[in-house]
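User: Can you help me understand a structure? I only have the sequence.
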Amino acid sequence: MTKRLFKALATSAVLAVSGGAVSAAECIAPANPGGGWDFTCRQIGKIMYDIGVVDKPVQVTNMPGAGGGLAFNTVVNERSDDADLIIAASSATTTRLAQNAYAGRTADEVRFVGAIGADPGIIAVAADSPYQSLNDLVDAIKADPSSVAFAGGSAVGGFDHMKPLMVLQKAGFTDITSVKYIGVDGGADAITQTVGGFTQAMTGDMSEVVSFLANGDIRVIAVMTEERVPGFDDIPTAKEQGFDVVAVNWRGLYVPKGISDEKFNEWADKLQQVADSPDWAKAMADNGLAPFTKVGGDFQSYVDGLVADIATMSKELGVIQ
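Assistant: Let's start by predicting it. Here is the structure, written out as tokens:
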């Protein structure tokens, strides 16, 4: 019997004795189906069940609204001690908290369990777009900022919005307030805007575009990583096109603040088991994710630091005062 299977059986036994609290586990994806938060809930929830660390499938609830703010407020105000609840989180979550996009809500009002993958940032265009490279797109914006509009799955000033602004900053373009950006609920909606011709480009993450890329609906003209992403080797990085920008979106979970330390540690252990599993390794490879594991009690400190860093960068970019 493998150690993992033994641990899973032991966990199930403990849960059975304690009333099976995690058997009704729910994961809130704060966006519509098809986006990155939805991916996080569905993949992590499925693997938790497949490897036996929860005894029933994890229910996924999509709760779009206010760029994740509706879900965050719901958890803080209505479900602050729900030990069976996990919520998909990412760099977009910390960006919005850093920019006070959740109307005064702060990172310490929930508990961040951890992150187990990094989703490379990308910029994509429709398959029939005249823009063949990131340089083409940047040149068009520099010539006429009104000619290009971006769609992204984060609110205005959010992480998706910041990605093209960071590229433009490296290109010497400073009038970032003239760049059009439409924030929608999730990457799938952003792709729909772009494929439909309502915007000229989409800014988001690799996991959000894999199926659309396979279907030939879009072309990814840049990935914002140090090196090309394995499995997507034909997509050039922003760096190799002359723009020294690296922007990855970690994928992870938070839980209500009012749960016990014991429950928090249980979820951290479950998330670590997912991170260590071959199932997750395959999910990362299939969806263009890179390994990025920070799980447990020290993750809140990491998040606090990240919030401070993003606030500083946002001010430098002129996104916030």
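Now, to help you interpret it: The longest helix spans residues 299-317. The radius of gyration is 20 Å. Let me know which part you'd like to focus on.
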